[in-house]
Specification:
This protein is mostly helical. The protein folds into 2 domains: 89 residues, no CATH class; 39 residues. The chain is built from 5 helices and no strands.
Length: 129
């Protein structure tokens, strides 16, 4: 019953886009202001709410969980595509800044990994008396 997940996703997206467009008009911006993010919040709240508890049981629940899990990576991909399009229109400085941010983030992965410790250390600490 993945269809229930698609229906909930569609309802959340339509409601979020309408609110985002309304915010754009209120703020005087010729754009949708946060509609996809608002839709994501609606989807998370609806799929975890007590009123949808009966709907989220069984096969229908699997569809809702599937689309809830898929929505966040889709939103991130959409935002990344928009950021790249804006950066190419912004000129060379925007591209250099974006590339620099990615390189710094990649360089910090080992540092953050060392700060968190390894899994083998965590396992040995749990096994110690």
């Amino acid at each position: 019953m993945i269809i229930y997940g698609v229906a909930l996703l569609s309802f959340s997206l339509i409601l979020g886009m309408l609110i985002g467009e309304a915010l754009g008009v209120i703020l005087g911006v010729d754009a949708n202001v946060g509609g996809v993010g608002i839709a994501m919040l609606f989807l998370v709240f609806a799929s975890n709410s007590a009123s949808f508890r009966a709907l989220t049981a069984g096969a229908a629940g699997e569809g809702i969980k599937f689309w809830s899990a898929m929505y966040i990576p889709i939103v991130v991909a959409m935002a990344a595509r928009q950021n790249v399009a804006a950066a190419t229109d912004g000129g060379m400085l925007a591209l250099v800044a974006g590339t620099g941010a990615v390189l710094v983030s990649l360089a910090l992965v080992p540092v953050i990994s060392r700060l968190g410790g390894s899994d083998s250390e965590a396992v040995s600490e749990r096994e110690a008396p």
